[in-house]
Amino acid sequence: MNNDKLIIGGHEFESRFILGSGKYSLNLIEAAIKDAGAQIITLAVRRANTKEEENILKYIPQNVTLLPNTSGARDAKEAVRIARLARELGCGDFVKIEIMRDSKYLLPDNQETVKATEILANEGFVVMPYMYPDLNIARDLVNAGAASVMPLASPIGSNKGLSTKEFIQILIDEIDLPIIVDAGIGKPSQACEAMEMGAAAIMANTALATAGDLPLMASAFRQAIEAGRKAYLSGLGRVLVRGAEASDPLTDFLHD
Amino acid sequence: MVVINGKNADVAGTTILQYLTDEEYNIKTIAVELNEEIISKTYFANIVLKDGDVMEIVHFMGGG
Fold first, then answer.
1. Closest CA to B58 of A69, A205, A256
2. How close A107 comes to chain B (CA, Å)?
3. Among A34, A74, A254, B61, whose Cα sits 20 to 30 Å from the Cα of A25?
């Protein structure tokens, strides 16, 4: 268990909880990171329009890896532009590709995501593409140089849980990269279930941002993710198709 | 006119650095793209904005 590291693009992490930083107060970020035990936090790149805007980096401890996303991008070209700007901001080579054409369901555009992954991987980025769980696309992402694959559990921000469970399991079974379940995980039990299935990590944002007590929920997620990981590593017990089996030895003497 | 973050600005003739300084941007926390090319901070003082340029000034904010 001590040697159980999450490895993304050659970088090692102990934590398997990737934290989002959207939709909550900057003042809560430090507590969220600490209580989540997170070593990776996502950020967005946006136009800087006013001089008063606060610098989010001030709230993030130095040893936490920054994972800028390309949200707002509608095609590969825009995602590549955002990723390059993020790198120019001077915070490393990690990038989470997020490309959405559809504004109602916010579903990722898998084809454009493959294109952007290839371009950015060739430029030396550690590319973590967010995608709709599809085995063929996941294989294309591997070939394009992705460092992980991030399938959605259900529509982003919905807190609906593992709607795509069967298809995520296929990716876990067939793809030789960390499968990080991203989007739609609404509560710790769902994060735990994904980890039991063999997911390498969980990314969550809205589940925390919309919780009553954000740091407490961060801590609950952390424990659930750790529990799920331990369960996966230990190997889940089998399920009986029919009947029952006593868990204590059957004693005879009371009957005779 | 120069289009900066989607808005017209009458700043042709000034350098990128001058514009950013006038607008009180924190140079450390932003990145600049001019006509879809990233401009390294070291060139901010050398590049003069001209009519028709399109500049984007971005920074990090919270996101998932």
1. A69
2. 14
3. A74
Q: How many residues can be counted in chain A?
A: 256
Each of the 256 residues of chain A gets a pLDDT tens digit; together they read 678 999 999 999 999 999 999 999 888 899 999 999 999 999 999 999 766 678 899 999 999 999 999 999 999 999 999 999 999 998 899 999 999 988 899 999 999 999 999 999 999 999 999 999 999 999 999 999 999 999 999 999 999 999 999 999 999 999 999 999 999 999 999 999 999 999 999 999 999 999 999 999 999 999 999 999 999 999 999 999 999 988 887 767 766 5
Enter the tokens of residue A89. 């901001």
A-contacting residues of B 3-62, CB under 8 Å?
Answer: 5-6, 23-26, 29-33, 36, 38, 40, 56-62
| Chain B residues inside the 8 Å CB shell of A156 | 64
Q: Which fold, A6-234? A: TIM Barrel (3.20.20)
Residue type, A128: M
ipTM: 0.93
CA–CA dist A169, A143 (Å, integer): 20
**Pairing of β A126-131 and β A150-151:** parallel
Q: Give catalytic status of residue A115 as yes or no.
A: no
Chain B CB within 8 Å of residue A43 CB: yes
Per annotation, catalytic residue among A5, A23, A58, A96: A96
